[in-house]
Amino acid sequence: MATRGLKEMNSDIKVVGLGGIQMESEGVELLEQTTNEAAMGVGAISEISRIKRLVGLVEKWITENNPDIVVAVDSPAELACLQSCKKIWL
């Protein structure tokens, strides 16, 4: 996992994200545990309000913490989170 490699290079690096137990065990500070609620296909339609809430959570965290870098990986909220970063930083 990338977090392990980053922390090996610099133990002061703080990694924060949305994810699951494996990410947390690698040293990621979870804003929220999300892996138990993943949905695909038609079931994902009901996920819209949850995704909007998660995007709001991430946007609030970014605004309050001003991270040096944001990396969005493998999430239905990925594009919305990156658009929020653009609004905040530009």
What does this structure look like?
The longest helix has 18 residues, at 48-65. 8% of the residues are buried. The protein has one domain. It contains four helices and two strands. Helix 3 runs parallel beside helix 4 (78-89). A two-stranded parallel sheet has the order 1-2. The model has no long low-confidence stretch (mean pLDDT 82). The chain is mainly alpha-helical and 90 residues long. The chain has helices at 2-9, 21-25, 48-65, 78-89, and strands spanning 16-19, 29-33.
Mean pLDDT: 82
Gyration radius from CA atoms, angstroms? 14 Å
Based on CA inertia axes, which overall geometry fits?
globular
> Which residue ranges are poorly predicted, with pLDDT under 50 across at least 5 consecutive positions?
none
Strand content: 5-15%
**Count of extended strands:** 2
Counting DSSP H or I runs of 4 or more residues, the number of helices is 4
Give the % helix.
40-55%
Euclidean distance between termini CA atoms: 30 Å
Strand order of the largest sheet: 1-2
Total domains: 1
Q: Which structural category do the helix and sheet elements fall into?
A: mainly alpha
Largest sheet geometry:
2 strands, parallel
Helix-strand string: HEHEHH
Question: Main attributes?
Answer:
90 residues; mainly alpha; two-stranded parallel ribbon
Write a brief caption for the model.
The chain has helices at 2-9, 21-25, 48-65, 78-89, and strands spanning 16-19, 29-33.
Ordered list of secondary-structure elements with their pairings:
Elements: H1 2-9, E1 16-19, H2 21-25, E2 29-33, H3 48-65, H4 78-89
Parallel strand pairs: 1-2
